[in-house]
Write a structure and sequence with these properties.
heterotrimer; A alpha/beta; B mainly alpha; C mainly alpha; A: alpha/beta; Rossmann fold; four-stranded antiparallel sheet; 11 helices; 25% strand; C: mainly alpha; MetI-like fold; 2 domains
């Protein structure tokens, strides 16, 4: 059994995929070591509180570079809350508090001298509902580079980002029109392209397809597969088929109900290779969920 | 009663289906009467407008029977209450001072008001907001006569003369303009804050997610997205300043001047109307009719400003929704 | 692949705090916004202190119970103006409450917004709210003091003019309060066989009442602070009689304040400050009632 603190400081080179059955005292503490791959996020014992209520507890997982990691689980299990820790979006909620540490390439994102603005420049995010700015398509893409003070050929940056977002051919003739005139699926791809324009390292996607039709969803899934060549992707999804189709690793979150207070807390039950989670899960709760018995 | 109804409508259905049709009963007549009474009350507002327009036009038309159109609108000397050769009816000084003092007021109210709106909507903690917003409402509820008193007895002698060392007469346009700005500040702040707060949180998150700083989120995303509401706030503020009476009457004196100099007295259209009505003038004379001619001019300008506001808001809405 | 030292260094640079200049810009912007907000609050504070310093020494029972004097400021009081202002509140309320609520009910519950005349009424109310108060004064002078009603320069004329001025405020607030009553309440009542008016009278209005009351008080507190319309309607500045009903001459606090402020004798200016305190106290009381009503009775649907 690997001690979490040790695991955190190791470089991960010789580690086995360490899966641990839920320990009685901390059933949610499951460690998975991406062996032979580069760890990008080392999440150590992270809990998130809203005011005094704990929304997510004791998350310990390591996410690998250039892979797609899916976070699945029933609604209210804290997977969205958790993904928002990875680029410090929870800082925007005044009552939210995060404990534990999130190592990002070895740097703790929650260290006191880390600037959340710089974090978000490296770790982009795509949200559940497409949220284009009320500006032209061009200005939406150019927003990120502009706020970063990028000096360079903006036209080229915009074209590159739109091409990577698989949107260029559809919009190249109307770059100056308002982004609100696009379809929902196009808007979401615009938001993805917008994130790519700042050349991030990681792309966080919080249920990016939940507001889209199946065809748009398919296009975004294809896009994700292409993007993982260059980016690391973390995706929250309630769609298990989607997780099974696109992801390399899957973390299953669940809700623990406190019988006394009725308070609900999210926790990780199992974290493993996606095939394993869906075909041969170790935990009964995971099996029940992926086979549709509960959830 | 039921049987009477039945016999009166012998061809109708009997049993449970009977009596379902409309009947003229005391109850249904009452309902109709009430509806008519309510409609009459609602029509009163239209009567009010009609009354304003008719009363203004009536005397204004008589006025232009005495005074030439060109003299009124292009004359630069406003001395309607003098006698003989010194009497003149050039309204330009009044229009000029109205516009000029409004601009001075906006020069103060726009930056302060918009900054307050941004602070309250984007930076302030809920506790600070709960404290500051009602205080701004109190400022908005202070009667303008009180602001006029403050302009004359404090802003002019203490702030302008002693503190800032500006050379101004006791009645001056600067003091009136500054206080006019404070007068419209709460209006601008509150309407603009509503507009900023109405911008969906998802837009802010999107911008933060791209690594924008708070200032960049505010200035590049939230502010532009709220532009229609912010423009509405500014125009609303302007229209309040244009129609304000007593602050000008008290602080800027009663001497119409067509000048850029803020150190001297200025008279706006509204202030002229009030000043003239304070004196004893007989009904029917040309002097009396000037109230209406100036009133009509003020009314039309206010309506134009409003129309511009409505059009601007519509245009921005088309772009951003 | 290992996390190399070089890679880690690059990342550390990336997630390092922003440059000093960048952070300074952020802090300066936030400070500017905060300071600008404070200007308005500071102004209010200085205003209240200034008025209190000038006026409080003059406040006394005599000040409230004496008639104003043109000659001896030290004996002057606000008796008639206070009576006038209080009466104006009552009479204006008696006018705007029924008319304002009736208009609001008509527009919310009966009017078909597709009909041109109803749209005209709506548009008209919007525009009336933007008409300067001095123009209402002209209307009062031409139609109420003289012209069709010819009431003369009496209190009723003043109350009607102020009422017309603030009617749009009452209508807008009352409509919001009525709209806030959920339609399920109406459906429930109608399904029990109540007529439309019974539904409004027994269900909708009681639910909307706290909101309407708040709106009426706010409208009244705006009305009694108004000076310009009363100048045109002919309120008397130095009125040395007790109020004698709706059809007699009248004074009001703003008018007496205006007259005192513009007097050349500085002693009268302090008198104005004292009268301002009386006016502000009345406004404070009215607003306290409004806040109390809102907190005590407001219905959460």
């Amino acid at each position: 059994m690997t001690e979490p603190s040790e695991a955190r400081h190791s470089d991960g080179r010789n580690e086995e995929w360490a899966r641990e059955a839920a320990d009685v005292s901390t059933p949610a503490a499951v460690i998975a070591e991406p062996a032979g791959r580069e760890t990008i996020f080392d999440v150590d014992n992270v809990s998130v509180y809203y005011s005094d209520k704990r929304a997510v507890r004791d998350v310990r997982i390591k996410l690998a570079r250039n892979e797609i990691t899916a976070l699945i689980g029933p609604s209210g299990c804290g997977k969205s809350t958790f993904i928002r820790c990875l680029n410090r979006m929870n800082d925007l909620i005044p009552t939210a508090r995060v404990t534990g540490a999130i190592g990002y390439h070895g740097q703790d994102l929650y260290a006191s001298d880390v600037d959340p603005v710089q974090v978000r420049k490296r770790i982009g995010m795509v949200f559940q509902k497409p949220n284009p700015f009320p500006k032209s398509i061009y200005d939406n893409i150019a927003f990120g580079p502009r706020v970063m003070g990028v000096k360079g050929d903006m036209d080229e940056i915009v074209e590159t980002a739109l091409r990577r977002g698989a949107l260029w051919d559809e919009v190249k003739d109307r770059l100056k029109t308002n982004a609100f005139g696009m379809s929902g699926g196009q808007q979401q791809r615009l938001c993805i392209a917008r994130s790519l324009a700042t050349s991030p390292d990681v792309l966080l996607m919080d249920e990016p397809c939940s507001a889209l039709d199946p065809i748009s969803t398919g296009r975004i899934e294809d896009l994700m597969m292409e993007l993982k060549e260059d980016y690391s992707i973390v995706i929250v999804t309630h769609n298990m088929q989607q997780a099974a189709r696109v992801s390399d690793m899957t973390a299953f979150f669940t809700v623990e109900l406190d019988g006394d207070t009725g308070h609900r807390t999210g926790a990780v039950v199992e974290y493993d290779q996606t095939d394993k989670i869906f075909q041969n899960p170790s935990d009964k709760r995971t099996e029940d969920y992926v086979t549709g018995k509960v959830g | 009663m039921a049987s009477a109804d039945f016999t009166a409508r012998a061809a109708g259905p009997s049993g449970p289906g009977a009596g379902l049709r409309y009947r003229r009963t005391r109850r249904s007549t009452g309902e109709q009467v009430i509806k008519v009474l309510l409609a009459v009350a609602a029509v009163l507002s239209v009567v009010t407008t009609t009354g304003i327009v008719i009363s203004l036009l009536n005397e204004t038309i008589s006025f232009f029977g005495e005074v030439g159109f060109a003299e009124f609108f292009f004359g630069t000397d406003w001395n309607p209450l003098r006698r003989g050769a010194q009497q003149s009816f050039g309204v330009l000084p009044l229009i000029w001072s109205t516009v000029y003092l409004t601009l001075i007021g906006l020069l103060i109210a726009i930056p302060l008001g918009l900054a307050s709106a941004i602070y309250l909507s984007e930076y302030a903690s809920p506790r600070v907001r709960r404290l500051v917003k009602p205080t701004l409402e109190v400022l908005a509820g202070i009667p303008t006569i009180v602001l006029g008193y403050f302009a004359l007895t404090y802003v002019t002698p203490v702030v302008l003369r002693d503190l800032l060392g500006v050379e101004v007469r006791i009645f001056n346009g600067l003091s009136a303009g500054i206080v006019l700005g404070i007068l419209v500040l709460p209006t601008i702040a509150s309407v603009a804050e509503d507009a900023l707060s109405a911008v969906p949180q998802s837009l802010r998150e999107g911008a933060f997610g791209l690594g924008a700083t708070q200032r960049q989120v505010v200035l590049r995303v939230v502010f532009p997205a709220a532009l229609s509401g912010i423009v509405a706030a500014l125009v609303l503020g302007a229209s309040r300043a244009i129609g304000e009476t007593v602050v000008i009457l008290i602080a800027a004196g009663a001497d119409p001047n067509l000048t850029l100099d803020l150190g001297v007295s200025h008279q706006t259209m509204a202030a002229f109307i009030a000043q003239t009505a304070r004196g004893d003038i007989s009904q029917g004379g040309t002097e009396f009719q000037t109230i209406f001619a100036v009133g009509t001019t003020l009314f039309v300008i206010t309506l134009l400003v409003n129309a511009v506001a409505i059009r601007l808001v519509r245009r921005f809405r088309q772009v951003y929704d | 692949m290992a996390v190399t030292a070089g890679h880690r260094e690059a990342t550390r640079r990336a997630v390092d705090p922003a440059s000093g200049a960048q952070r300074l810009k952020e802090a300066a912007f936030k400070a500017t916004m905060l300071l600008s907000t404070l200007v308005g609050l500071l102004f209010l504070l200085v205003l209240i202190v200034d008025v209190a310093r000038d006026g409080v020494p003059l406040l006394s029972a005599d000040f409230l119970s004496s008639f104003p004097s043109r000659i001896r400021p030290e004996d002057s009081g606000v008796r008639s103006a206070l009576q006038g202002t209080l009466l104006l509140i009552v009479v204006t309320a008696a006018f705007i409450v029924p008319v304002g609520i009736a208009t609001a009910i008509y527009l919310e519950e009966y009017a078909d917004p597709e009909r041109w005349w109803n749209r005209l009424i709506e548009l008209n109310i919007q525009n009336l709210a933007a008409v300067p108060s001095i123009v209402y004064g002209i209307l009062g002078l031409a139609w109420i003091v003289r012209g069709p009603l010819s009431l003369g320069r009496v209190l009723l004329a003043g109350a009607l003019t102020l009422g017309l001025l603030v009617l749009p405020v009452v209508i807008v607030v009352a409509r919001e309060a009525i709209r806030a009553v959920p339609s399920s309440i109406r459906d429930g009542s109608l399904a029990l066989g109540a007529t439309q008016w019974q539904t409004i009278w027994k269900q909708v209005l009681p639910g909307a009442l706290p909101g309407i009351a708040t709106g009426v008080i706010l409208a009244l507190s705006r009305a009694i602070g108004e000076t310009a319309p009363l100048i045109l309607v002919g309120a008397v500045a130095f009125y040395r009689f007790d109020s004698d009903g709706l059809l007699s001459s009248f004074s009001a606090l703003p008018i007496q304040i205006l007259e005192a402020v513009t007097d050349s004798d500085p002693a009268f200016r302090d008198l104005a400050a004292a009268a301002i305190i009386v006016l502000l106290v009345i406004l404070l009381l009215m607003n306290s009632v409004a806040i109390y009503l809102r907190n005590r009775y407001e219905q959460k649907w």
